[in-house]
Design a protein that fits this description.
This protein is an all-alpha fold. The chain is 74% helix and 0% strand. The protein is built from seven helices and no strands. Helix 1 packs parallel to helix 4 and helix 2 packs parallel to helix 4. The longest helix is centred in the middle third of the chain and has 21 residues. The chain is globular and about 35 Å long.
Length: 119
């Protein structure tokens, strides 16, 4: 993959770098369990190809908004993601992307992380 192709792919996945780093800084400020949950969801979201740079950035920003609010309100992680975190992420992603292929391994990893941090 050439540098230009790689940049185009990364832009589609994470959006503009400035917005990505601002998002990552916000995630870093979350309480540990919420941060771990967001990191797991972020990894899972990477399996979906956004339709444009703005959609990618908006998805991650909306994700951190949701978890910042949940942390501030004391909402349990399980109350945010429900019993099936993969279903939660896939429904969340539908607002921003046409979809993607999610391997079973990624589903299992997401479920395991959520079970650990959300109980």
């Amino acid at each position: 993959m050439s540098d230009a192709e790689e940049h185009g792919f990364l832009s589609k996945v994470i959006g503009p770098k400035r917005r990505w780093w601002a998002y990552k800084a916000r995630v870093k400020e979350l309480p540990e369990n919420y941060r771990t949950a967001v990191d797991a969801i972020e990894r899972y979201l990477m399996h979906f190809v956004p339709t444009d740079d703005d959609s990618a950035s908006s998805a991650f920003e909306d994700l951190v908004d949701l978890f910042e609010q949940a942390a501030a309100d004391g909402t349990a992680i399980r109350d945010v993601v429900g019993d099936d975190p993969a279903e939660f992420v896939e429904e969340f992603a539908q607002n921003y992307t046409a979809g993607g292929y999610v391997p079973a391994r990624a589903r299992k990893r997401l479920a395991e992380v959520m079970e650990r941090v959300a109980g």
